[in-house]
Amino acid sequence: MTSGIPAAPVLPGWTHVYSGKVRDLYVPSPSQSSQVPAALGAVGPDVNGPFAGRDDVVLVVASDRISAFDHVLATEIPDKGRILTGLSLWWFEQLNVPNHLVATTVEDGVPAAVAGRAMVCKKLEMFPIECISRGYLTGSGLLEYRASQTVCSLPLPAGLKDGSRLEEAIFTPSAKAEVGEHDENISYGQMVDTVGAGAAAALRTLTLEIYSRAEEIARERGIILADTKVEFGTDPANGVITLGDEVLTPDSSRFWDAALWAPGQAQPSFDKQYVRDWLASPASGWDRASDTPPPALPADVVERTRARYVEAYERLTGATFV
């Protein structure tokens, strides 16, 4: 069950069409100048900006919202949208993979009100698959491994622990779920049945290539990339499989401090772990099994969570977040 999502901001020139847990999507509003006769002043640039009337782009705005246990929390994490957008943009530059970026600055058409946390992107025909690569055993993969010594039906060696490094990274797809529901791990064979053999093979290869490249970059910076989720779609203009959504952020990946890595226990991560831990603790007074929304987060949990996101950004990119 997902708690209520706040109303998306109004952005002149853009029409809000969808809100997820942490992102808001907009499409260009119809061109105004095309609806006004030239004699009445329809001259010069379109008042709705360079993307007015286009149907091939979407504005993706990252909010400061945070979700946990399938609830969108009432408390936001300051600067989270800018941090994750900046990190995604940095990773797009590191990867030799076609991506969906069209514009990322105000000068190129991003609304000033959401500058720094928004991207104008190509509309893609998205595959209904979460493409996941795992180099370490943890999370839902660990639960399946303990039950059957497999992850998404892939057999793994005996004796692995929480946090164990795998001999080589594995591709473990999941089927996308509706907002508020859990994605479902599926086998590669089920993925083939869903998207076809050719697309499945291409998505697996691209996902493993992205993980391999990103894992190497992160390791050089003292960070372990345990696993990551990426999403792809087909570009209608040329049929090319294209990387979309966010990429390699703490919301879509597990990053661990290499200096603290210790298999056999849960690893501290660069994400919303402080939030989950507090909500699950007696201090929150919240019962996950109830229909009651989670309580507001204390100021110290907010600050520590923000600091963890900032640390991930700065250690990975080498830049200071301002």
Describe the model.
With 322 residues, this protein is of the alpha+beta class. It contains six helices and 17 strands. The chain has helices spanning 80-94, 139-148, 188-195, 197-220, 273-280, 299-317; strands at residues 14-19, 23-28, 57-62, 67-68, 71-72, 101-103, 118-122, 125-126, 129-136, 150-151, 154-155, 165-171, 174-175, 184-185, 223-234, 241-244, 253-257. Strands 8, 9, 12, 13, 14, 15, 16 and 17 form an eight-stranded antiparallel sheet that branches. Strand 10 and strand 11 form a beta hairpin.
Question: What keywords describe this structure?
Answer:
6 helices; 24% strand; five-stranded antiparallel β-sheet; 322 residues; alpha+beta; 17 strands; eight-stranded antiparallel β-sheet
Please estimate the helix content: 25-40%
Number of strands: 17
Spatial extent as radius of gyration:
21 Å
User: Ends: how far apart?
Assistant: 35 Å
**Main sheet specs:** 8 strands, antiparallel
N to C succession of SSEs = EEEEEHEEEEHEEEEEHHEEEHH
Strand percentage lies at: 15-25%
